[in-house]
Write the structure tokens for this entry.
Amino acid sequence: MKHSAANRQLSWSSKSCIVTTSWVLCSLFPGLAAGGAYIYSENLNNPDNVTHPSVYTGNGGVLTVRICIDPTSPNATHMEIPVQNNINIYNKLQPTTGNIVLAGANNIPANYFDFESVSLHEIGHCLGMAHPNLASESGLTGDDRNYTKSTIGNDSTYTINPGADVITGSSDDIRGDDVNLHWFRKSNNNPFTIANVVDASTYSRDPGDLPGSHNFAANAARFVGNLLGVQNTEAVMQQGTSRDEAQRTLNHDDVATLRYAASGIDETSGNADDYTIQLEYGGISSSNCDISLKITTTPNLAFCSYVIPPTALSANHVQMRSPTIEFGSGFNWFFNTTTVNQMPVLSTIGAQALDEGQSLSVPVSATDVDGDNLIFTAFGLPPFATLTGPGNGNATLDINPGTGDTGTYTVKIDVDDDGLPVLGNSETFDIIVTTPVIDTDGDGIDDATEVLNGTDPDQVDSDGDGLVDGAGGIVCINLVTGCTVSYPTGVDYDGDNFVDGESDLGTDPTLADSDTDQLPDGLEVELGSDPLSDLSWPNIADGDLAPLGNPDGNVNAADLLIAMRIVLNEVTPLSLQFAHGDLYPHGAPDGVIDLSDVLLLQQQVLGPP
Amino acid sequence: MTKHPSAAIILVTLVLCTVLPAHAANNQAPGLQPVFHFSATPGEPVIEYTVVHHMLAQQDPVPLLRVYGDGRVHVHFPAYMKRAGDYEMYMNRVQLNDLLRQLADDGIMDFDPAAAKQEKQQQEAARRAASGALFHASDASDSHINIKLGQYQRSAASPRISGFSRQFRWRNLEFDTKNIPESVVIRKAANAEAILRMLCAHPALQKLP
């Protein structure tokens, strides 16, 4: 079947011989040598042409292509994630299948075009790739556009016949004298596969290199994929997008086309002129941009415009310049907000507690499914803590607090990847530093607290009242299981085999007589009176009253004299006097000091009558 | 909807007066002015304008703009466009004549594809000779303007053509306008397209239910 190209109005293509300053574009070619689905090949009348990104000058290495969003563009901020996703996809250069995601399975509203998918296609153009199919520039319509890219041949018209399988663009197409412009894999002519090495040794444009039974180079149209057992897959560079259709990852054919160009001018991989393209996101900027994207009032849906400079890199190699992508503002655009890049996962760290003088080394780790480099950053670290990270998702938080560092420190550790956009994760936690508990005298109160309280950290009974300074249960009175210190003279009021500390009793560890009744707290506790009440006294009943307020341990005439003065109301008795001087009735004093008590005391001093 | 709403006509007049150069209506001598005859039958479009987007897998089959002989202007934006829907307004016979006259002045009626292609190639060749650089764009769009008239006479000295039909087709008209500014054919055609696009955005257009 011959198809007239009469409706190819004002096509750029012609067979005229064009001579420029440094290259001869006259190639009366059919069937010669290699070429590829590269931008402008048909316009240059050179099917062997390979078009390279603007940054390639023939020297190999890693070449950075900076992609920017024009600051004057509407929806510039909405474009950021889709464009960064595109950059991720091109940098990974990962061939995929199933890259067509149709309505219901994607996140695109009905009647919207997916900006990210269209942008991926147009960036492909701006990197040098052409449509692998004849596309609309052929002047053909409908499914005929899916035939593999070619020239019209000597007969000035496309020869298009789908062959026995009736699938356009497949390997059995009958294309007459049309000159193939599409690279194919020599071993199988299957654009849904890719060779490990992509260069002239494995790919060709020459039909003579096709597998035996094949008629023409197959392209990665979705129906060709179906024929080859690959569903919902198409080259991103295949022209034709539908609303509510996502195509956000590259196909094998897209990757092979880029990699073939990257094999350099010699079209042999492993040589010095090989290059790797690294796309860099330049942000919403107009500075130093290699490719700029913008939504404009253009009536077009989208296109990449570019310039082919006058000087070629070599006979079959050109670079493109000044690529710019425009999208029509009149269309409904969906801006994907889901990033290709995945957030790193930070393992739980949790609160960290330690004493002054102690050290802690806390492992910090994170993982990233994208395999991005991970960078840890700490915020709010106290001076005694450092975060060191050898990389590979591992770091160490070293904490070494010294004296005076006691406190709670809120710290945040971030982990960021180096993907596009940069994504991070973080955890906020406390470092709790406490003063170490040192209790030199073993009285149950640490030294710092004793200093604060005014007690002696070296004395279990600072006020000498017979009570241990600290809390009960801390200091042993007898050697019991687990108890290593014995205070046999201490008070064990509740019989739990531990000394009752002043903090238990509520007495003041700095005062021997908390209730100022002239009876030491320890004595009151020991003898069963309340050390906190000056109206409570023990029943000592030994008659030792003198000297007044400071009994001397002797019972004699001086004591009898004081007792007489109390009876005569010359001295008002206090708890101390009641404790010693209330003798009657014997063994059960009545709480008063009167003549009965004096008589008993007199008998004690003078002897029985 | 009421036909020929007077307010809309006034508005259309105002806009067209600013869009169309004055000479289109008044500045030419009567014998030099083109003459148009077209049927006022409601169903016959005199002017059709549409844009074919190469990137689209499925083109919308309905033309973007249709101007009928009775003055009805029908604008159709496909569902995937921000202004999705069908819109209408009316222009009177004088306005429609002015519009046709402008399209004629911009070369649409007498468009010669072969001559235009040749001129473009010559301009491109001249640019290449001067700078060596080649300009191109992927994923183009085609501008289609169809004119159908009962009779068309370019000037008094020209033959009167009955059953006149002209199809204007141009790929990447906007891009060519920027990159081949020397081309009169392209520049005038771009002007004609600009007028039709402005008509598509006319504030008097009312959305049909």
In short: Residues 113-131 of chain B form the longest helix (19 residues).
